Amino acid sequence: MRLGFAGTPQFAIPALDALTHSRHSVVAVFTQPDRPAGRGQAMHMSAVKQRAMEHGIAVHQPASFKTADAETTLRGLELDALIVVAYGLILPPAVLTVPRFGCFNIHASLLPRWRGAAPIQRALLAGDATSGVTIMHMDAGLDTGPLLAAREVPVAERETAGTLHDRLGALGGELMVETLDAVANGTAHERPQPASGATYAEKINKAEALINWYDDAAGILRRVRAFNPWPVAETRFDGAQLRVWDAQLAPAVAKSADAPAPPGTVVAASNDGIDVACGHGALRILRLQLAGRKLLAAQEFIKAQRLAGLRFASP
Description:
315 residues, Rossmann fold, 2 domains, 17 strands
């Protein structure tokens, strides 16, 4: 099959690699325009653009697919299918029907659960025991198209958004190639998404990363893992940002004769970690980072900081 590929971030790279090594031919890549980034605001290419150039594939970077020029470019490619993976731009209904077989999307959830922008993080925040990838034939709705294939994976005990992102990215590439083989062979079968069980994975807001120590420890731990590697769960230490990169549930909080330690209080600090009282239970911080400093294991951090009795701030 003659394919186009539309994607932008690192998550799309395994699928692009898998397709370029398949029996199908990727003849063009669409990705978002270069943008300024970093302190110097130098122009940066997307991860997909860089990989497409390595593969020697022609790259197109329309600011929108709602223009006649973008649609004309797509029509001129005479594609059998357009594969869309975390592209970040809306494809109008007229564009979805341009390739002979249509447009296919790799989505990082088991649809209809977690339609939307942040399925990996929302699954971890919700404490889902399983996740997976779905291959969807795109329609005009938000991740509502018919399903062609899905593959489920268990969520590991210490899973982060970063580790799940990498696992699902690789799995999505494999499943996309299998699905396209079936489409080419005439053996693919589509089924509508179930009417029940749909949830929406709203885009992550950086403000969500601020830890509220009045929450229960298990919920805060889910936040730490869902926001690693971005935006990273954080609290305040002497008025400065303190990022929490890794944690686990701690043993029961030590209690005084009068009352339990207030949420946010450091109740223990040792080589095992930094135990912080929560609204229910305690969180043991394992790796953390002060603003402008390097990431440290808890045992290294406490060598330079006096923490016993300190209380981290809550919003």
